[in-house]
Design a protein that fits this description.
The structure is a single chain. The protein has 299 residues and is an alpha/beta fold. Helices cover 39% and strands 21% of the residues. The chain contains ten helices and 13 strands. The chain has helices at 5-17, 20-27, 31-45, 61-84, 105-115, 128-136, 182-185, 198-209, 223-231, 275-286, and strands at 50-53, 56-59, 94-99, 120-125, 142-146, 154-162, 164-168, 179-180, 191-193, 218-220, 237-240, 251-255, 262-269. Helix 1 (5-17) crosses helix 3 (31-45), helix 2 packs across helix 3 and helix 5 (105-115) crosses helix 10 (275-286).
Length: 299
Amino acid sequence: MALTSSRVRAVNAVFDTGSFAAAARKLGVSQPAVAQLVRDLEAAFAVALFDRHGQSLIATPLCRRLHAATSRMQAIEADAMAILAQRDELTGGEIRIGLGNAMPGMALIAAFRNLYPKIRINIEIGSWSTIMAAVVDQRVDVAVLPEVPQDNRFRREPCVQQRVVAICHPFHDLSRESRVSALSLMQYPLVFRTRDSATQRVVDRAFRAVNLRATPAIVVNTREGMLEAVANRLGVGFVWEHGSSRIDRIAKVAIAEIEAEMPEYIFSLAGKRGKLVELFYLARSLSRSADGADILSAP
């Protein structure tokens, strides 16, 4: 990537100190290394970040805007490093986590667990309304859900974008399609979730958008029930695209009326603090595998 953290740090150090030499001393690297990082970033985006006046470097208006944006990122990075530096101190304790979908929450938990294997993790899995209530009632410390309201009671940070898709048995006629319309879905027995499900609210909106009233053949109250009903050929169901890592006896098909992806959030009560809660929010950036792949977006 052209915009790397090392290049950003070099630009900001030059901005703060006014020269390559002073920036090199601040970063603890060589002057040529700092100069090369700045030049590489300028070349990559065909921009000028500094005007050269003898030994002095004057930041361009573009550079000042870049510094204002990226200095906030560096402050967050510094906070994250300070927390991660305390890893060896975290030899006990417990965190309670609520999940609406098994994924991406389980991927976040896996990243957290790999770093802090001695922390006990209690997981509550339930419908959207159940997990919302668990956060409000403080049965869980932090949760992962879609459609978290923008409410002053909550702190929320997006962790992945996904959409609702139709699911069917691999031998179902629909499994050969890459995309299906809401109207076409009406010809099959449908498996719905109960009304307290965020998945079902998205599905209901999609049918209403094209003036259709779908009547389900089966209604289940859990995601596992949905997956089992579809795996046993009881009908066509609906799940979040990355809501489960299960692939046996399940085929996913995009829905024409649900093209837009929606964010899934890590969230907690706004006043809910503590070292373990803060570390779980950081799990999003820690959830990349060693080869750089994002495990949250893996099918």
